[in-house]
Design goal:
Blueprint lengths: L8 E4 L2 H12 L4 E3 L6 E5 L3 H11 L8 E3 L3 H5 L6 H10 L4 E6 L16 E5 L4 H10 L3 E2 L14 H8 L5 E4 L10 E6 L2 E6 L5 H8 L6 E2 L14 E2 L9 E5 L7 E2 L6 H16 L5 E4 L8 H12 L7
Parallel strand pairs: 1-8, 4-6, 5-9, 10-11, 12-15, 13-14, 13-15
Antiparallel strand pairs: 2-3, 3-7, 4-7, 5-6, 9-10
This protein binds threonylcarbamoyladenylate and magnesium ion.
The site of threonylcarbamoyladenylate has 25 residues, from strand 5 and strand 6.
């Protein structure tokens, strides 16, 4: 992926630093920010293009659902549906190193690239004052994966972020070394059952004591992320659609709809999951997608499209 070459500022996570970070977030840029686990690369979770720029900065060749960071349970309940078990966990461990995967409220306004098209959303209220202040100042929930380039380990200091993302992000807020140095515990809560998806600072035993009367109700480890795929067959690199195909265009290939008429890969990444869902709802029996270049975000878009096009024995 060609390296974007931005000047990267590193500044303390003080009031002035937070104000500048919030300004960049509102302008659709990703900013690195400390949490108590690892540094995150945060962007406006309500803007698909802002979130696409996280992938562009990380050079990540595939889309994965991201954690949405909130200030606490009030903001979280506007984004996802909490059952009593989820509420008990949030009350006990938030703010803190616990991420809850819960059913997404469709009206929440979270961009579909954040959940990679899934109907669940991962939510976390970090205890770090910098993340708390940034969400409040930006006035919106923030999508943030760990702030490392693809293939590098998660950063626990601003210097690690700089090593990995220098020239790729405009600002790194320096909050010193993170407390845990290990990513948050992730659990999915559905129908009162708590599934451990990723072990982390909060153990399965601790979760079990809060969320369920018996430890057997913690099922561990679960599948980390199942992926959204359209229900219909999908054909790639199509320049001319067959009569029964709904063509998703790109650039010069107009299609029935277009990922980006101007061949802008940030715009295309932001639109991808919405247009796949939309294609599933059309009367046409099959979906076709125009060729997408492999460079930059194109690699992640093509990775997702190839998975969607691969024959699936059964859907889960
Ligand atoms: O400590 C942390 O959790 C850090 C800080 C920055 O918050 N973040 C982090 O994010 O580790 P990331 O993107 O590197 O890992 C998030 C994990 C991914 O493995 C993803 O598959 C899973 O969360 N995930 C997100 N949404 C999901 C969903 N709806 N269902 C299942 N898994 C999900
Ligand atoms: Mg990571």
């Amino acid at each position: 992926m060609p390296a974007p070459d931005l000047p990267t500022q590193v500044r303390p996570a003080d009031d002035a630093g937070i104000a500048e970070a919030a300004r960049l977030i509102r302008a659709g840029q990703p900013v690195a920010v400390p949490t108590e686990t690892v540094y995150g690369l945060a962007a406006d979770a309500t803007s698909g293009e802002a979130v696409a720029r996280i992938y562009e900065a990380k050079g990540r060749p595939s889309f994965n659902p991201l954690i949405v960071h909130v200030t606490g349970i009030d903001q979280a309940e506007r984004i996802a549906r909490f059952d009593p078990a989820a509420r008990a966990l949030a009350q006990r461990y938030w703010p803190g190193p616990l991420t809850l995967v819960l059913p997404l409220r469709e009206e929440a306004g979270i961009a579909s690239i954040v959940t990679a098209g899934l109907t669940t959303v991962a939510l976390r209220a970090s205890a770090h004052p910098a993340m708390q202040a940034l969400i409040a100042a930006a006035g919106r929930p923030l999508a943030a994966p760990s702030a490392n380039a693809s293939g590098r380990i998660s950063p626990t200091r601003a210097a690690h972020v700089l090593d990995s993302l220098k020239g790729r992000v405009p600002l790194i807020l320096d909050g010193g070394q993170t407390a845990h140095g290990l990513e948050s515990t992730i659990v999915a809560v559905a129908d009162g059952e708590v599934r451990l998806l990723r072990p982390g600072p909060i153990s399965a035993e601790e979760l079990g004591a809060v969320a369920a009367p018996t430890p057997e109700r913690i099922v561990a480890p679960g599948q980390l992320a199942s992926h959204y795929a359209p229900a219909k067959p999908l054909r790639l690199n199509v320049t001319e659609a067959a009569p029964d195909e709904w063509l998703i265009g790109f650039g010069d290939i107009a299609g029935d709809v277009s990922l980006s008429r101007s061949a802008d890969l940030v715009e295309a990444a932001a639109a991808l999951f919405d247009l796949l869902h939309d294609a599933d709802r059309q009367p046409a029996a099959r979906i076709a997608v125009a060729p997408i270049p492999e460079d930059g975000l194109g690699a992640a878009i093509n990775d997702r499209l190839r998975r969607a096009a691969a024959p699936r024995p059964e859907k889960s």
